[in-house]
Amino acid sequence: MIAVLGGLGAALWWATGTLSAARASRLVGARSVLCWVMIVGFVLTLPFAVASGLPDVSGHELGWMAVSGCGNVAGLLLAYEAMRRGKVSIVAPISSTEGAIAAVLAVLTGEALGVGSAVLLAAIAIGVVLASLTPSTVGGHTLGSTLLACAAAGCFGAGLFATAKVSNALPLVWAVIPPRIVGVVVVALPSLLSRRISIQRAAVPFVVLSGVCEVVGFLSFAIGARHGIAVSAVLASQFAAFAALAAFFLFHERLRAVQIVGIATIAACVAALSALRA
Questions:
Q1: Which of 118, 141, 234, 243 could link 99 by a cystine bridge, Cβ 3.0 to 4.6 Å?
Q2: CA dist 123 to 10, 150, 244, 259, Å?
Q3: What are phi and psi of 253, to 5 degrees?
Q4: Separation of alpha carbons 185 and 57, rounded Å
Q5: How far is C-alpha 139 from the chain's CA centre?
Q6: What are the boundaries of each domain within the chain?
Q7: What sign does the CA torsion over 207, 208, 211, 217 have?
Q8: What tens digit of pLDDT does each residue of 41-100 get?
């Protein structure tokens, strides 16, 4: 049950962060939002990391931390580039398969998963894709953007799986902070030095909220993954469905019939999975 709650918590926090980041990106641009989100997350998690002290880690665990950090940051960069080149309505559902990829990796590396849970997780993954679909027009999308979206999903999936591995071996803060470290060192600092990062007063609350949601979402996922990587990963990936539903109420965006089917599928399967895992 903790795996279910952890995955759902991550999805809710990440959906909130996604909506906030979308609003901020209209004010200062996507790259600047990414930089500030990473900086906020680093500032938020650093005191906890210092307080917990440096853990005694092996080369194996350092490797997982590197995969976790690089996977998350690379996934964000690839997804942004894919959306710049092509249709968001095509890129988003491809990227949202990250949870399914992490679940497959967990099963391939030996995590036990019953037939009933496997069927429900597959149905939830399909529901995520359906709920993430948005209207698109013909044309304006390239094979390159599709390949970038696939690469982003792979990076996100590997990052989630690595985060789960780190959370099983180290204190939770050390499962959350690797993406922040990589994001600050690789993205934020170079952007600051080259003066390619900007901020406006109106964007500050959205950037801060996005940074907090990113961190708390990773924390929730890490807690859930300690009790089941596959379940937590697939449920966490439905942040796209939650974001679509929230946009309907907050921004008055219309939901297509296929999105309603996807959201209904997710709700039914989550209820069934919760009962099964309990």
A1: 234
A2: 19, 20, 18, 14
A3: -80, 135
A4: 21
A5: 28
A6: 2-277
A7: negative
A8: 999 999 998 988 888 788 888 899 999 999 988 887 787 677 667 665 566 667 777 877
What secondary structure letter does DSSP report for 183? I
Q: Can you tell me the distance from the alpha carbon of 9 to that of 232, in angstroms, rounded to the nearest whole number?
A: 9
Q: Name 232's Cβ contacts closer than 8 Å, sequence gap at least 6.
A: 3, 4, 6, 7, 10, 164, 221, 224, 225
**Cα distance between residue 216 and residue 264, in whole Å:** 26
Residue 258 C-beta-side C-alpha neighbours within 13 Å: 10
Degrees, nearest 5: CA angle 181-19-198: 55
Token reading at 137 = 């027009």
For the chain, the residue count is 278
Buried b (16+ CB within 10 A) or exposed e, 89-121: bbbbbbbbbbbbbbbbbbeeeeeeeeeebeebb
Let me know: does 200 contact 141? Beta carbons within 8 Å.
no
pTM: 0.77
C-alpha angle with apex 25: 71 to 13, nearest 5 degrees? 55
What is the DSSP secondary-structure string of 51-104?
A: HH------HHHHHHHHHHHHHHHHHHHHHHHHHHHS-HHHHHHHHTTHHHHHHH
183-204 confidence digits (pLDDT tens): 999 989 998 888 888 888 888 9
